[in-house]
Amino acid sequence: MTRSPHGPADFGLGSWPARRARISPGRTALVQPGRTRTYAELADRVERLAGALARLGVRPGDRVAYLGVNDVTVFETLFATARLGALFVPLNFRLSPAEIRYMLEDSGASVLVHSPDTDDLLAGPLPETLRHVVATDPASCPAGGLDFEAELAAAGDPPPAGVRLEDPCLLLYTSGTTGRPKAAVLTHGNLTWNTVNQLAHLDVLGTDKALCIAPLFHCVGLGQITLPTLFKGGSVEPVAKFDPGAILGRIGEAGITSFSAVPTMLEMLCRHEDWDRTDLSSLTCVLYGGSPVAERVARAWLDRGVKLLQGYGMTEASPGVSMATHEGTLDHPVAAGVPHFFTDVAGLGPDFTPEPLGETPAELLVRGPHVFGGYWNRPEESKASFVDGDWFRTGDVVRVDDDGWAHVVDRVKDLIISGGENVYPAEIEAVAVRLDEVDACAVVGVADERWGEVGAAFVVRRAGAQLGEAAFRAHLERHLARFKVPKYVQFTETLPVNATGKIRRVELRARAAASFPNGPA
């Protein structure tokens, strides 16, 4: 396994804008309506913001939080925080005030930068550890708050840089589908090696124009296209709000070459009324990750000639583990591809040691210089996440074909054991959405006195569809063994999802336990 070397004292994420400014100072780094930052301008503002944060007392190891939609100021704050050797904490603006307060308390952030669209989330009392609140819009400065631009104007020089690859850079909170979210600690080296992995897998150019539409508090938004494009000297356009029509229009208007997204975004885009008349010829790559995508959605993009690639990963891997290749995607439209260059993969053996992956599903183990070292202030959970030294337990069940392409079968915790047989909800869901009448489907386990567990399917019908339970079951029985067909079926208007589109199965399990009897089959 390749290990990251110790870099020079000033090598880290915070140095990226400054180094790029020396190579291509006049190129556009970031662009938004009414605002453009060349690499030279970005480097200058990052230095001044680092000086401002230092004047506010931020020191190496401190935490600086950001609450707001995708924006140029997110990048400026990220790079300035990293420049100081402090930790950047992007917060999910779709959460409640109580959840935001929990993350501020958990991270111990001393400074919070926020945009005006999040004012309501800061209406209540804030943690005592939070010494300064900085608003990017002076009109939304709370009492005692600071103005972002005024702080930049009054800033002095930051202290000398001294960031190493092994120093922590980012606290990225997991999506928290069960319990409260926990923060993965990603180092400068983790993020750098993930970028190198992406560039080994993809042809990213300094002339690329990337949209940043996935939220920057999520690993897809930050790691898959955005940082690699900035590393190469391309242009990134942060998008504050996901509007399918506006995104399609921007692709044709600006000649966008790439973006990363979560599957729900891809589906909304290809369903939009402007889809067929949008010019997609400028797109050289569209990456998606975070959860599987329905094959019909993948085919919709591939049929338009778009190079759509699934990237599989997780927050703890910064995030990339594997990715599809342009050469194999048509034959494997929804597969997770092959491992990244600096990534080792294995399966969890029965004695909790690594073993080769193959056709038999096994829990995936990952190691590499992009894999994190643990969770923030959670030593026991961190220790339990690794086996045999430095192999991270992903919690995902995968199988690998003879050609080396990986397929994510399901989450370990979502596995249903019914009558001694392993039932993977993802397999059932993939079959369910082949029906034209089915918009979405989620399957969870529910206790059963005879079989131990049985499946309960929650099905969302497409608008106007007349699908009934008998027809739905008949479809499943044509493609699945009988023991895999859920015992219970409930049609519903929507499925509960979190901010990144992942189904909140903990809610569905509670609904299933309350709705379906625990009796003999």
From TrEMBL:
Pfam families attached to this UniProt entry: AMP-binding, AMP-binding_C
Domain of life: Bacteria
Segments forming domain AMP-binding enzyme C-terminal: 427-502
UniProt xrefs under CDD domains: FACL_FadD13-like
Keywords (A to Z) from UniProt: Ligase
Similarity annotation: Belongs to the ATP-dependent AMP-binding enzyme family.
EC number: 6.2.1.34
PANTHER family: LONG-CHAIN-FATTY-ACID--COA LIGASE, MEDIUM_LONG-CHAIN-FATTY-ACID--COA LIGASE FADD8
Listed name of the protein: Trans-feruloyl-CoA synthase (EC)
The AMP-dependent synthetase/ligase domain, residue ranges: 19-376
UniProt organism field: Amycolatopsis camponoti
UniProt-recorded Gene Ontology molecular function terms: trans-feruloyl-CoA synthase activity
Keyword Ligase: yes
Entry-linked PROSITE patterns: AMP_BINDING (PS00455)
